[in-house]
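2024-03-11 09:14:02 DEBUG pipeline.ingest accepted 1 chain
2024-03-11 09:14:02 DEBUG pipeline.ingest length=690
2024-03-11 09:14:03 DEBUG pipeline.predict start
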Amino acid sequence: LVIIDEIHLLGEERGPILEVIVSRMRYMAERMSQPVRIVGLSTAMANASDLADWLGIPHDSIFNFKPSVRPVPLEVHIAGFPGQHYCPRMAAMNKPTYRAITVHSPDQPTLVFVSSRRQTRLTALDLIAYCSADEKEGQFLNMPMGELEPMLAAVKDPALRHTLAFGIGIHHAGLDEADRVLVEKLFLGQSILVLVCTSTLAWGVNFPAHLVVVKGTEYYDGKAKRYVDFPVTDVLQMMGRAGRPQFDTKAVAVILVHEPKKTFYKKFLYEPFPVESCLHEQLHDHINAEVVTGTIRSKQDAVDFLSWTYFYRRLLQNPAYYHCADATPEGTNGHLSLLVEATTADLACAGCVEVGEDGVSLAPSTLGRVASYYYLSYTTVALFHAELHDVDEGPTALSDLLRVLCDASEYDELPVRHNEEVVNEQLADKLPWPVERSRFDSPHVKANLLLQAHFARAPLPMSDYVTDLKSVLDQALRILQAMVDIAADAGWLHTALGAMSLTQMVSQGRFLDAPPLSDLPGMSAAAEEALAARGLTHLAQLVRLDAQALKRALGGTLGARQLSELSGLLATLPATELEAAPPPLAVEAGADCAISVTVSTGGRRARRSAFAPAFPKARGGGWWLVMGEGDELFALKRINLPSGSGSGPLKTELMMCAPEEPGVHECAVLLVSDSYIGLDQQVTVRVEVR
């Protein structure tokens, strides 16, 4: 049994993911003769029969209700506002918003949805001004001020601290977590009656209210560099927050829109709307993934697979929407074949898919497997393959590696808000590595600046940038893992090691040459000087000190509690020992051979997650085993270290192809952390080739 909620989101940007998952599920169920039960939940739709046909649901099991069928009847008011420019139009909506609250929900909860974090603040401040003009400053506060004041003292956001005193909260992703939890608690408990929030709240925590005001149906799209409309599904989702079945006999939604769009919203907010597929816009990555899994092994398999998708149903019903000129069955099938041809040609050009000599069979390449495994766009791995280098042109520098990382397609959607290019230019002047100064409005340049600020521990200009940095860091580690794999496949030793160093920098939030001990608990300048006086300047030295030696080194600068905390942490950090042995006999040139590797940790108890205080969330610590000579990488392997007092050393092998030149080769074997700076190990093995 599979239950799918909000299935109308097929028509949104993330819809293709849902579409491919369900299509693959039904495709496999048919091939394996194991039927799957599917229950789909959605808002009212005009083409529910197409959706049911795709899901394999019989027509007597479709229940498609009108939008007016709700547990709590919804009264909708739509008002249009003239004016070409966005900001003055938003300001003109503030007084009607206040009037809507006082008329429809003066003493019940109200949600006001706006398009941006800046608008949450501006709208809340204007609502306070209108309260003051009516001499009703506390009309939205439903608790004694004496109880609220201790809570306000703990609020970090100054705008939120100010607005809460008037019973008005603000809510957006840029708030500190403690602030966000507090405002949610106050609103759910009806201690404050108005919450001004961004549209993302409609899809997150369920906050029902008696009145919902949608203040504007446009938002600034940093990628398009203009204001664009919210999808109708988003507006419906916001409206759906109106009405509390246990309290209300009716609910109210007030939609404030640009005057020219008033008729459009009157039509589509009251009538079911058709849902179209977006799969054709993201087909490359999904076809690549199916080729990698073996579901698709030829172009005909790709056409057959697409016939199971919702896209195929809608192509037959509405061919013009998908740019298909011939509406006949033969024409749509021809369109599908051309689409597969173009998609596989692009994937082959990017190096992700190999087309057989027959021009029909398809096989995955290393780049395609990397893209599928790390869930990356095919354009990203193609970029890495084109931009990274090592043997011919010398290793790629760390600053260039960072630029290539940030040019990944995964950062295309990083928001660059209105006028942020000015902020980005000011931030660039404070950071060490140069960026392309003509592209301060680019999300890729912004990602570069955010990561540099992360490494330099530089203060960010606003809370929005703190949230943006978290989203950049969330993506960075898996993109860097892919970069390491691509460099290793090409045999580029120094570039692979550079990408590993960049991974360490992302995890620890500092440059490689920054003070190595400053993040340890209680580590002051005086403590670092005391350690340096004993020749202890690196983390690898400290993790091998016992508690007594640490006390002798730092007893005069740290208190007992600080010493205990530091000693406890150091005891959980890996103190590795690396050994490697070459094949016992000389190997043939070009033949495969195995290098025996032993890694021990001294039986230390392992941490559940790496010690990375500058990284925004917990992450496990992994390691690479690398072998190479000069600038050529011979072998790479990911390992997890043994942990616990009862665990012995890790014994494994690195498989390599022996060099073509006879003689004795001095090969380096490295143990490289993906989380810690300064704990890597290196030994040399002599491989004799005949």
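2024-03-11 09:14:41 DEBUG pipeline.report The chain has a mean pLDDT of 89.
2024-03-11 09:14:41 DEBUG pipeline.predict end
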